[in-house]
Task: inverse folding
């Protein structure tokens, strides 16, 4: 059986990873019409798998140097 993390831990993690210039945005899926939330105008529908083009976002994507796993 998979162990579930407490909701408080999830909230702490989410707050730590969202930068101050990040904005939560909402739209409707262009394929199935489900309401989807995203960050800075970038969306992915969990119902049908639709994803909007990365260029439709509200800001520049971070560079590879900003990736914590980048060597």
Result:
């Amino acid at each position: 059986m998979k162990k579930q993390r407490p909701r408080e831990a999830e909230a702490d993690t989410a707050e730590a990873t969202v930068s101050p210039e990040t904005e939560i945005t909402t739209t409707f899926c262009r394929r199935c019409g489900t309401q989807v939330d995203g960050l800075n105008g970038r969306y992915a529908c969990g119902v049908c798998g639709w994803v909007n083009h990365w260029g439709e976002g509200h800001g520049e994507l971070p560079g590879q140097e900003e990736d914590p796993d980048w060597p």
